[in-house]
Amino acid sequence: xSKVIITAAITGSIHTPTMSPYLPITPDQIAENAVQAREAxxxxxxxxxxxxxxGQPTPDLELFRKVLGKxxxxxxxxxxxxxxxxxxxxxEQRVAVVPTFKPELASFNMGTMNFGLFPVLEKxxxxxxxxxxxFLEATEDVIAFNSFKxxxxxxxxxxxxxxxxxxxxxxxxxxxxxxYFIDKGLLKTPVYxxxxxGILGGMAATVQNLVILYESACRxxxxxxxxxxxxxxxxxxxxxxxxxxxxxxxxxxxxxDALRVSKGVLAKNNGELVEKIVRIARExxxxxxxxxxxxxxxxxxxxxxxxx
Length: 308
Hints:
Blueprint: E1 2-4, E2 6-9, H1 27-40, E3 44-47, E4 49-50, E5 57-58, H2 61-74, E6 78-81, H3 91-95, H4 97-101, E7 105-109, E8 113-114, H5 130-138, E9 143-144, H6 148-160, E10 164-169, H7 172-183, E11 191-197, H8 207-220, E12 226-232, H9 237-247, E13 250-253, E14 260-262, E15 265-266, H10 270-283, E16 286-288, H11 291-298
Parallel strand pairs: 1-16, 2-3, 2-13, 3-6, 6-7, 7-10, 10-11, 11-12, 12-13
Antiparallel strand pairs: 4-5, 8-9, 14-15
Helix pairs in contact: 1-2, 1-10, 7-8, 9-10
C-alpha cells in the first residue's frame, strides 16, 4: 500500500475555549491528545501552547518544554512546532522554539497576509474569558507579518539547527516565494509544503484552488522537488484532505483547524479526527505512515538530534 503522512494539529491559536469544551489547553491535555493522535495513525503532531489557566495562545518556552518532553516520553512522534505563534507575538518570540528545542520540523509561514477570524463573532454572544472577544475582534485589523527580511532570518535559524521547515502556503503568490528562497540557497529541495485553505485572507477551500496551488508548485519548483500536504478550515477539513490524498498528497487534520468530527458533533479529542481521515485513506488503498516512515519521506534529522 502507498503510505501517506497524517498530521494532527492539536490546539493551534485560532479557536478559543468558548468554542469547544474539548479544546486542549493545559500541557497535559495537549500531550495526551498528541499521544491519542499517534495511536489513531498520525505520524506528525503540530504543536502550539496555551496559558493553562485561560487558554490564551502564548510563546512561553517553559510550556513548550513541558509539552514536548511529555510527548517524547510517551511516543515516537515527529513534532512540528509552530513559528506562526499567535497574533501580537514578535518574530523573535515565534522563532525562539527552533534554537531552543531544535525540533525535527517546524511551521514556516511563507508570506504576510490578513488572517481574519472576526466573522465568527456574529455567532458568539458570550465568552468564558475576556481575552477571547478582544482576540477575535483584533483580527479585523491585525496582519500576520512575514517580510522577506524576517523570513531570511528564520531560514538562518532553521538551517543552523537542522530543523526542516514545513512551508505554510495560503495563496499562489507564496509558491513564488518558496521558489525564490530555493533559488537563493536558503531552502534545500525536496521542500515540504503545506497548502492551507479556507482562511479569510487566503485562498478559499476549493478543489480548483488546490489544483492551482499544486500545478503552480510543479511549474515553479519541480514536481520531484517537493512533498506536500493540505489543511483546511472548518467543514472543509475532511473534503480537502481527502482530495489531497487522491491527488497524491498528505493530510493534516486536528482541532487547530476544525472542532467538529461530523455535522453538529464536536470532536472530543484529536484522535477522533485522525481516525476519520485514516478510515477514508484506507478506503482508497492508502495506509498511514509511521513516524519512522514519515522521517524518511521528509528527510528529517531524527529524534536523537532534538533538544527536548
